[in-house]
Amino acid sequence: MIENKRIIIDVKGHKIGGDWFTTIAGPCTIENYEDLYKVASYVKKLGVRMFRGGAYKMRTSPYSFQGLGEEGLQIIKRVADELDMVSVSEVVSVEDVQLMSEYVDIFQVGTRNMHNYRLLNRLGEIDKPVILKRGMSSTYDERLLAAEHIKAAGNDQIILCERGIRTYDSMHSRNTLDISAVSICQQLSPYPVIIDPSHSGGRRELVRSLSWAAAAAGADGIILETHFQPDKTVCDSQQTINFAELEKIIIKLPELAALWNKKIQRYE
Ligand code: PEP
Ligand code: MN
Asked: Which atom of ligand 1 lies at the shortest distance from residue 196's CA?
């Protein structure tokens, strides 16, 4: 059913998959233009070509900040254009897909929407890559079939993202990173597999270890949350790392990715 020819994502020359190890970094959510520009321009200085930021947030509580919506999309596009970077942002609903296509380079489907097949089918109709996060309690077959929903509808530009699953402890680690998933999903599917160390651990003290584990395990990249003032962010501040920590992490990635003959793309 699934042919295993590796898929390499290429957005304006910026790649995920194949021989590449890709880092995507940015805040959990877009709060305003100035802050997003500051974070994105800093991560770019470290060689990171893709940045993240949510305009629509799926919050556990309805009273938490839900995102800036279209204003956030306008901000993320402006920053991507000004810095010539690739933007990643989460889509939470079918009716936002058309609008988001005008603003965002890579769509992200969050853990809570992995089983939203109407949304997955709609994303099969667009010509932009989709980062599909693993449902927090989903099996390999369920998540691979979720990817298949996007592909069957016409889009094979899919990146699988491991963001931690529910196990026994939510006090010391928000979720549990299933590191076996890297190898298993690379064997069972043609898609690049990236790790989200921020949502996996849910604590900034764990992000370095999980990021390096991802690279050492042969993942195709990481997507993580960073900000210049992590404690002041409105969303996921406990797992957001500062720039000094991000730099410490990034500096070691080339040698770890080299274990799997993977390279980091550089700006010329
Ligand atoms: C996020 O990336 O900000 C996010 C909400 O992730 P997840 O869907 O993995 O919880
Ligand atoms: Mn988050």
From this structure: 9
